[in-house]
């Protein structure tokens, strides 16, 4: 699969762009664990052209994580074009346009998935951004605004006509947010359209290696993007790419998983500061499958998620790794 001149190989598995998740440290870890491509957190065009420090920091790319896409969002042509030029100067491999974010503060203001209610403006922005930069431009969007407006099959052709180099489809409408099941049959319809020649990337509910392979087989998409299942679980890319390649489930030990989580914590602290770095990483700790299904874990979990010092958090993780988890696994055996 190629996006412009960027060759991702056959059936690539990519890290989806996620706000407050896909920072530079997490992206690099996911790349090392097998992700074929990474995406930044989404970047507000308006904040970028105002040179807001917290936004411009999102443009930093470590060469070891490449290929990487920077994703931007906005609702007006001018700011999106200006932001696209700033992004191009930052040196990503691909520029991605977010027409899929469903949250109220974005979609409710007409950006992200809000553009699904104004297709002419969506297409105008896309054409203008493609024309403004030399980078391959891609789009990530959803099936439509709601159940009564699943327009993605026709929309995919229209976006292709604007000059984009690939399209990612999240298999839900904006109204669904992240509820219900992703509709991979409709993603398959997009891919099956004989008039569509650009790569199609599927996204939604890919949480195990088995589901990844099933989605490739079911939809025939060119690539798959993994989002929420990677939070607190960067090793999922190693599991998925190994299973995709060999059909075998790779066993990753708990010690390696804990080491990756500790690395995330340390690098988050190094990149921000101790207090805010730990706050940032709590989402990963809360979501990590390492801590799922452990009985009588509630108080330890609360302590873990309330810890505001590295030493305290590290001691709690040590206790979980060397005492609580082994005792639980022994009873499971």
Explained architecture:
The protein is of the alpha/beta class. It contains 14 helices and ten strands. The protein has an eight-stranded parallel sheet with strand order 3-10-9-8-7-6-5-4. Strands 1-2 form a two-stranded antiparallel sheet. Helix 7 packs across helix 8 (184-192), helix 9 (209-219) crosses helix 10 (236-246) and helix 11 (254-271) packs antiparallel against helix 12. The chain is globular. The chain starts with a strand and ends with a helix.
Brief synopsis:
It is built from 14 helices and 10 strands. The protein is α/β, with parallel strands linked by helices.
Strand order of the largest sheet: 3-10-9-8-7-6-5-4
| Terminal-residue CA separation | 43 Å
**Major β-sheet, in short?**
8 strands, parallel
SSE class: alpha/beta
- Tell me what portion of residues adopts beta-strand conformation: 5-15%
What is the string of SSEs from the N terminus onward? EEEHEHHEHEHHEHEHEHEHHHHH
Give the helix proportion (percent range): 40-55%
Number of strands: 10
Shape: globular
Question: What is the rounded Rg?
Answer: 20 Å
| Uncertain spans | none
């Amino acid at each position: 699969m190629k996006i412009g001149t960027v060759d991702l190989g056959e059936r690539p598995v990519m890290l989806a762009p996620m706000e407050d998740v896909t920072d530079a440290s997490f992206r690099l870890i996911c790349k090392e664990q097998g992700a074929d491509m990474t995406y930044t957190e989404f970047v507000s065009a308006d904040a970028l052209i105002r040179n807001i420090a917290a936004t411009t920091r999102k443009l930093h790319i470590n060469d070891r994580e490449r290929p990487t896409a920077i994703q931007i969002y906005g609702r007006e042509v001018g700011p999106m074009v200006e932001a696209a030029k700033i992004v191009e100067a930052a040196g990503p491999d691909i520029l991605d346009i977010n027409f899929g974010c469903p949250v109220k503060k974005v979609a409710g203001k007409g950006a992200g998935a809000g553009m699904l209610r104004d297709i002419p403006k969506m297409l105008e922005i896309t054409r203008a951004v493609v024309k403004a930069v030399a980078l391959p431009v891609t789009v990530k969007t959803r099936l439509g605004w709601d159940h009564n407006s699943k327009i993605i099959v026709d929309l995919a052709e229209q976006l292709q006509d604007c000059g984009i180099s690939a399209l990612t489809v999240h298999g839900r409408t904006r109204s669904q947010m992240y509820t219900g099941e992703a509709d991979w049959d409709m993603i398959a319809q997009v891919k099956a359209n004989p008039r569509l020649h650009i790569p199609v990337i599927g996204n939604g509910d890919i949480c195990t290696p088995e589901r990844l392979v099933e989605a490739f087989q079911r939809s025939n998409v060119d690539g798959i993007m993994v989002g929420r299942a990677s939070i607190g679980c960067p090793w999922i890319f190693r599991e998925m790419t190994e299973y995709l390649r060999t059909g075998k489930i790779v066993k990753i030990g708990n010690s390696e998983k804990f080491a990756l989580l500790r690395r995330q914590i340390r690098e988050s602290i190094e990149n921000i500061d101790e207090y805010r770095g730990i706050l940032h990483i709590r989402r990963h700790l809360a979501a990590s499958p390492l801590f799922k299904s452990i009985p009588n874990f509630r108080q330890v979990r609360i302590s873990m998620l309330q810890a505001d010092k590295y030493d305290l958090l590290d001691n709690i993780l040590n206790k979980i790794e060397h005492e609580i988890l082994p005792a639980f696994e022994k009873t499971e055996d």
